[in-house]
Structures are given as structure tokens and as C-alpha cells.
User: Which sequence fits this backbone?
């Protein structure tokens, strides 16, 4: 006998907004299965506002409201039992972020929680990484977003520590990430990985997912540092327009993919990791699992 619950997660990031619909299959004597049913992505770059002028513009507030109305209708069609909407770096740094939350609630009927970097890292870490990693190895999990990057260190199947840094792709594009932030990331990675050998990276986020898809590799096979570096140089040698026309990248992906690779490559270098695994998990997956286990 099985039962199926339908949960949804809304991830309001600095580069895009996502609605994830998940079927949770429950069966006596077995662990619940989390099966993705639908994923809708809307490229509203809130970080372009928040990290340059400090507020979400009227135009993007209107676009957000329309997107949330659409998400609400989609959740109704899917007969969602429970949902949670979380906003990250851009919304927490825009001075009118709370005002935008009130506007969305009034006009679209969706409540948004603005979460801090520590909460974001914790939610991401709640994804079932133990299914993806070997319990006797050490992994540095990296989620590169538009406004921030979350790092979590796992050893023997358990989380050792996690940290969020203001070094996302949209910030990097707008040149608002200082050398000090890069130094802090390097220092943090080296301090917490120095006692471990043969570290591997687990990467998540739209950019590394795209690179992995372009590689044609099977999901359980990693990408090497050399491959990632070659892809970085290849993409960097092309113009923004060429990445769109010749590689078929979306306009909102063709620019941020370069700084995203820079983050992953630096993290691999500083942790002395040779390989990066790319499972398709992220904040929205973590939100669903955290809701199910009553962590949020």
C-alpha cells in the first residue's frame, strides 16, 4: 500500500525563480521517495537590481507578481498539499525586500520567507546527499547561486561545517565581489579541508548542471578539474552572442556561466579536489525535504 503527497517549493534566487513540484511516495517499511514532477524556471534577475541600486525595481516587482500568480495556478492544477517559498540573497539585501514580500502576498496570495545565508546552506544540506556520496569519503558541496555561494563539508556521510559567502554569479558579473571575499573563501576552504585527503566536489546550480549536460556524461560519473578548466577557457574565448547562437545557451545563462565556473575551479584548486560530481539537486529540493521532515 502506498500513499503520495504533493509538495511544492519556490526558490526566489538572484538570477531566476523556480517552482519545483515533487511527488513524495510513502510505502510501509520503506524510506520515502522524492520524485520530481515538474520544474518551471523564470529568468527574473533580481540581483541586477539588488546588488547595483539596492532595491527591487517596479518593473521586476510586477514581473515577480505575475510569476507568482502563475505559480499559484500551477500549484492548484497539481493539487499541491503544502508549499514553501524562500527568497535568498537579492531579496534579503534589497532595502525594499520586505515591502515586496507584502506586495506578493496581497496580489498573488503567496507568502514568501526571506532566509539568511546560514539557513540557505542548512536547507541545501538537508538534501539526501548520503544517497549520492560514499560514506567513507570527504566531499565539499558547493551551490553557486546568483547572489551567494553555499559551501558544506561532508565526511563519513555527515556534515562537518557549512558557510555562505556573498560571491554569486550576478555579483561577479557586476564586479561587486571584493578581493577580500575571495580571500575569505580561500582561507575557509583551506582551513576546513587541510586534514582531509582525496576530497571531491559536489556541485549544484544551473550553471554546473548545464556544463555537465554538455559533457554527455552519466550522472554518477564526475567531471575532472582539467575538463572544467578547458570548458572555462573555451567558453571565455567566445563572445556572449556566440555562446547563445553557437552553443544554444539561454541569454540569462550565457553570461553567468563564466563566473560560476570560476568559483568551482577556485574551490577545486584550494581544496586540492580533482573531480566534481553533479547531481541534480539544489535549494528547491532541500525545501521540499525540509518541509517533509518538519525542519522548516
Assistant:
Amino acid at each position: 500500500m502506498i500513499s503520495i503527497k504533493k509538495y511544492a517549493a519556490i526558490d526566489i534566487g538572484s538570477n531566476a525563480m523556480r517552482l519545483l513540484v515533487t511527488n513524495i511516495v510513502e510505502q510501509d517499511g520503506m524510506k520515502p521517495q522524492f520524485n520530481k514532477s515538474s520544474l518551471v524556471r523564470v529568468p527574473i534577475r533580481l540581483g541586477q537590481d539588488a546588488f547595483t541600486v539596492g532595491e527591487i525595481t517596479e518593473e521586476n516587482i510586477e514581473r515577480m507578481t505575475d510569476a507568482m500568480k502563475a505559480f499559484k495556478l500551477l500549484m492548484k492544477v497539481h493539487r499541491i498539499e503544502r508549499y514553501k517559498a524562500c527568497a535568498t540573497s537579492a531579496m534579503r539585501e534589497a532595502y525594499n525586500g520586505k515591502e515586496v514580500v507584502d506586495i506578493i502576498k496581497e496580489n498573488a496570495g503567496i507568502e514568501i520567507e526571506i532566509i539568511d545565508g546560514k539557513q540557505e546552506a542548512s536547507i541545501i544540506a538537508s538534501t539526501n546527499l548520503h544517497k549520492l556520496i560514499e560514506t567513507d569519503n570527504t566531499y565539499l558541496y558547493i551551490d553557486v547561486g546568483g547572489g551567494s555561494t553555499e559551501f558544506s563539508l561532508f565526511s563519513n556521510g555527515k556534515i562537518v561545517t557549512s558557510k555562505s559567502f556573498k560571491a554569486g554569479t550576478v555579483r561577479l558579473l557586476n564586479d561587486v565581489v571584493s578581493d577580500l571575499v575571495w580571500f575569505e573563501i580561500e582561507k575557509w576552504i583551506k582551513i576546513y579541508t587541510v586534514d582531509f585527503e582525496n576530497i571531491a566536489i559536489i556541485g549544484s546550480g544551473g550553471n554546473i548542471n548545464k556544463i555537465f549536460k554538455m559533457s554527455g556524461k552519466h550522472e554518477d560519473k564526475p567531471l575532472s578539474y582539467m575538463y572544467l578548466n578547458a570548458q572555462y577557457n573555451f567558453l571565455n574565448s567566445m563572445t556572449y552572442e556566440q555562446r547563445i547562437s553557437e552553443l544554444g545557451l539561454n541569454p540569462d545563462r550565457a553570461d553567468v556561466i563564466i563566473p560560476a565556473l570560476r568559483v568551482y575551479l577556485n574551490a577545486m584548486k584550494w581544496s586540492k579536489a580533482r573531480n566534481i560530481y553533479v547531481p541534480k539537486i539544489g535549494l528547491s529540493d532541500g525545501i521540499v525535504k525540509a518541509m517533509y521532515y518538519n525542519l522548516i
Observations:
- The longest strand covers residues 2-12.
